[in-house]
Amino acid sequence: MLPLSEQAPEPPRMVDPAPGEEQKIEHTLRPKILAHFVGQAHIKEPLIISIAAAKKRNEPMEHVLLYGNPGLGKTTLAHIIAHEMDAGVTVTAGPALERVGDLAAIVSNLKRGDVLFIDEIHRLHKTIEEVLYAAMEDYALDIVVGKGPSARTLRMPLEPFTLIGATTKLNLLSNPLRDRFGHVYHLNFYEPQDIETIIRRNASLLNVMIDDAAAVLIAERSRKTPRVANRLLKRIRDYADVRHDGHITEQITNDGLGMLHIDKHGLDAVDRKILSTIIQKFNGGPVGLNTLAAAVAEEMDTVETVYEPYLLQLGMIDRTPRGRVVTPRAHEHIKMMHSAV
Ligand code: ADP
After folding, report:
1. What is the pLDDT of residues 222-250, one digit of tens each?
2. Domains of the chain, earliest start first
3. How far is the CA of 205 from the centre of ligand 1 (A)?
4. Which of 76, 120, 302 to mutate to test the pocket of ligand 1 (most atoms within 8 A of CB)?
5. Across the chain, what does the average pLDDT equal?
6. pTM for the structure as a whole
7. Vertex 61, ends 56 and 65: CA angle to 5°?
8. Burial of 92 (0-12, 13-18, 19+ CB in 10 A)
9. Is the CB of 31 under 6 A from ligand 1?
């Protein structure tokens, strides 16, 4: 049996949680209007109605909560909503708001109808979250001044705005916060044909020729996730530029995917390390998330939010009350990958 690391040097990650230095191209590829946002019809249809209704009444839209795995389009959708509402957008994230004053500074600067996008909203401090309640419900900021018996609460009115919260972990959101959102939408993994559409559109935005079979192949390996599809497309484009004439063919795609160690399910070296570790070190499981993350030398949060959801979706692992277990499908896959080496 091969050692867990599969001995190869670590290839670049396709499913990293942070967009990193590729952010600029990401920005070019990000759809700006709802008509270009592919798939997720269960969200788009009600959104079209809500946006039209709010515009007709000349009111901001009710607050929107978007939840789903990384790279499925929460940030994109938040910007699209602002754009469709002809509204300005201010972007922040739960961990970036350290003090009540940070939130107060942001919300007091919002203009009527603006969108405030808070990414990773499950990571807001409790005290800040409590200030957000009145801001969301009454468009007011309650600020406590003074201490002890002379403390008073000052209420400062705010312009009506729309809060769009995004989270990968709905279960970590408190009920009072959740209840203050008028719309709660779950972003699903994408259908293969939707990912193909995204790849074709982005190839044309990047001015790259791509054969149909190549688009299908990249879509199959993209973990049903647009961000991964974009990354793969860019890496295969590099490969096609260097090893060919820039045209992405099926052969070039196959070779490029091989170089990136992406297997036929779209799993990368870290996914396979997770599966091999459960099989070899923990006898197939169950193993707790903590222990597993330490054994594969990854952050627990990365394993849980970046890798595990797709492995669960593929039916390669199961969550049990005693921890994670691999399924027969994972055993077969790892065996096949090892015999192919
Ligand atoms: P999240 O905020 O959920 O992590 P993003 O909104 O940053 O995901 O999406 C990552 C990238 O994937 C975007 O820059 C965009 O190019 C692409 N993308 C996401 N959803 C869609 C979609 N429905 N249609 C087309 N491209 C999409």
Report:
1. 999 999 999 999 999 999 999 989 999 99
2. 40-186 (3.40.50.300), 192-259 (1.10.8.60), 267-340 (1.10.10.10)
3. 15
4. 76
5. 92
6. 0.91
7. 150
8. middle
9. yes
